[in-house]
Amino acid sequence: MNIISKVDKTGIPAAEIEAMRPAAGEALDRLWSGNEPMTGWVKAPVNRNQEELDKIQEIAEIIKDGAELLVVIGIGGSYMGAKAAIEALPKAASGIEVRFLGNNLCTDYYWETLEEIRKKRTILCVISKSGNTMEVRTAFEVVKPLMAEKYGSEEEAAKHIIAITDEETGTLRAEANEFGYATLPVPGDIGGRYSIATPVGLLPMAVSGIDIIEFLDGARDCAESTEWDAGAADYAIVRHLMEKKGKVVEVFALCNSRLQYLGEWMKQLFGESEGKEGKGMMPTSLLYSTDLHSMGQYMQEGQQIFMETLMIVDEPAVTIEIPGGPQKGKTVEEINKAMIGGVTNAHRQADIPIAEVHVPKLDAYNFGQLIYFLETTCAITAMLNGVNPFDQPGVEAYKREMHNLLD
Ligand code: PA5
Questions:
Q1: What percent of the chain stands above pLDDT 90?
Q2: Torsion angle of alpha carbons 156, 152, 64, 199, nearest 10°?
Q3: CB within 6 Å of ligand 1 — which residues?
């Protein structure tokens, strides 16, 4: 297991963590039991569906050969994992540009994307488990006529559209059946924010040039590792105890700028899974050292309502040596590591509880491990908090109100 999580700087006594381990173990057993709803993601990287993987790879190859741009329409769990991976990981030269739409309702961003579609040979991939999400439907309806114009007819456009949705239900499934779009399934027992290791995340990643088998191997090795549970479970226990001790915010401090979108994915994962029944630390993210020059002041001397989790990539892809000046001969990464050490010392002086999550390097294999580690941490914490990690009843409220206004 390559991901290392450390909780020794959180100030929680080892005995307190030890006392919670049976409860965390019970949560893990429930996750693996196969009897809990929406836990399909737990075994997905281990019990792979080879036929489906072959189909994903085949579709990805066709897209890469024939198109310049893949536009993925999706929101929440239906785009964020792929976006995080694409931002973080190195990609093969054969990969093509992947752009996301339908993840906001910004007219200006729509326009930019429509312009790109006009200029480039484009494939459209619509992802929605429910098939009914307003943002996704809106984007799809806006882009469809443009695709028809571009490819000459609705029938020709349909050959350039892929739908990733529930196998049986929803408007998108019905439409895919009617118009003959290529389709891939979102498994019924996996919710959006846990779906990166399904076609939802894998197809856009493969099209961008990421090795999805390496990614799945990482997730599988994390799932099968005998050490991982201790790492994820202890981190989950600490997160649970922190909230009990009055820390209402968790700051994910991203010490590598390529993790910036992973921070967005983490906010969704932890926020949507844990923020219910008046419980759950509010997840937020900062980019270090960038944000030390803005939020650093608040972290050091503002209200101490948070715990901090440093997300550290141990080795960058390349080494850059500083050619002159007072730090001549050192590498940029040595300065980065000194920054992390400096922040740790300064924040400990301010009594900020610090956890660390280390990734050896940013490649598909380690990223797969990291994703699985974080999903497991999140599910265990939610279960320790006594809430369901796999529903999101609160999200419905704004949708209801939005529909009322539109009606
Ligand atoms: O995690 C979740 O379930 C949500 O964030 C969904 O992914 C998001 O609301 C999009 O839903 P859908 O895929 O049904 O369009």
A1: 96
A2: -40
A3: 75-78, 128-130, 133, 136, 191-193, 272, 392
Place of tokens 């009843």: 393
What strand order describes the sheet that includes 306-313?
4-6, 354-359, 306-313, 249-254, 282-287
141 alpha carbon – ligand 1 mean position (Å): 18
For the domain bounded by 41-214, which CATH number is listed?
3.40.50.10490
- Which is catalytic among the residues 272, 274, 308, 356? 272
**Annotated catalytic residue: which of 293, 301, 328, 396?**
293
Q: Is the CB of residue 75 less than 8 Å from the CB of residue 130?
A: no
- CATH class, domain 4-34+225-385, is alpha beta
Q: In angstroms, what is the span from residue 301 Cα to ligand 1's centroid?
A: 37
List 123's β-bridge partners, or say none: 70
Q: Per-domain residue ranges for the chain?
A: 4-34+225-385, 41-214
Matching CATH topology for 4-34+225-385 and 41-214? yes
Indicate which residue of 119, 245, 279, 399 is catalytic. Answer: 399
Q: What angle do CA 272, 275, 277 make, to 5 degrees?
A: 130
pLDDT for res 230: 64
> What is the value of pTM for the model shown?
0.97
- pLDDT for residue 277 is more than 70: yes
> What are phi and psi for residue 250, nearest 5 degrees?
-115, 125
